[in-house]
Write a structure and sequence with these properties.
Number of helices: 2
Order of helices and strands: EEEEHEEEH
Distance between the termini: 43 Å
Largest sheet: 7 strands, mixed
Oligomer: single chain
Structural class: alpha+beta
Helix content: 10-25%
């Protein structure tokens, strides 16, 4: 059973996605995130993974969603709000990270797990709407 935590960072109507290298898949597009460690909850895991992968810290927690994943565990989607000046940095050269701020409808979902795609399609839009 593998529990995962994804940091869904929202800024000015867009969401942060990363393109990165994975040894078993090549270049993939995904939310920053990773495994939930023992004695850690999904929200804390997403915040930790985000800091480790992007250097982003101190973002406002908006919501946490959870869904069963394909690996026999749960995936936690932790929605965080970033201020205008917040920008991710590539931390690990081996990951070959590239970051983009995308609208929900422009996220290339092919690399995402089923639970991730369902979250994008069912919940993400309400967190990226900007007031008129």
């Amino acid at each position: 059973m593998k529990h995962l935590a994804m940091a869904v960072v929202v800024k000015q109507g867009k969401v942060l996605v990363q393109k990165r290298y994975r040894a078993n898949k090549g270049m993939v597009t995904e939310f920053p995130g990773g495994r939930v460690e023992l004695e850690e909850n999904g929200t804390d895991a997403a915040i930790r993974e985000l800091a480790e992968e992007t250097g982003l810290r101190g973002l406002a927690h908006t919501a946490t969603f959870t869904k069963e994943n394909e690996l026999g565990g749960r995936t936690y989607f932790v929605v965080l709000r970033a201020g205008e000046g917040a920008e991710p940095k590539a931390i690990d050269a081996e990951r070959q990270q590239e970051f983009s701020w995308l609208t929900p409808d422009s996220i290339p979902q092919d690399d995402f797990y089923v639970a991730d795609r369902e979250f994008i399609q069912q919940h993400l839009q309400k967190y990226t709407l900007t007031p008129a």
